[in-house]
Design a protein that fits this description.
About 35% of the residues lie in helices and about 30% in strands. It has helices at about 15-30, 50-60, 70-85; strands spanning about 5-15, 35-40, 60-65, 90, 100.
């Protein structure tokens, strides 16, 4: 079993320029570092996308998906779709109490 699995974090973004830096600083400064941080820009009309781009340049764990506005559920689903299509997951009921592992 992998003691340091990759954890995916989906952050829907829509006109949150006032809060985005604090949010991203909190995520990137976690003690657990094996993260893939997916920022889903849901058609923001403020400076949210520019802020996201600044963070993506500084931290290679961050990826941005830019899409038309469809609401927070649509943005979350876009992130889930990305992770489901990027990684094959296997449910292991015998080891680790039913954990999901990357294979």
């Amino acid at each position: 079993m992998n003691d340091n699995p990759l954890i995916g974090v989906v952050v829907p973004i829509y006109n949150v320029e006032k809060y985005l830096k604090e949010c991203l600083d909190s995520i990137i400064n976690q003690t657990y570092k094996n993260l893939k941080i997916l920022l889903i820009n849901d058609g923001s009309t403020d400076n949210s996308l520019d802020i996201a781009k600044q963070y993506a340049i500084k931290d290679n764990r961050i990826m941005i998906i830019n899409k038309q506005n469809g609401g927070v559920g649509s943005a979350r689903n876009a992130g889930i779709d990305y992770f489901c299509n990027s990684y094959q997951l296997q449910y292991n009921a015998n080891g680790g109490g039913g954990c999901i592992h990357l294979i």
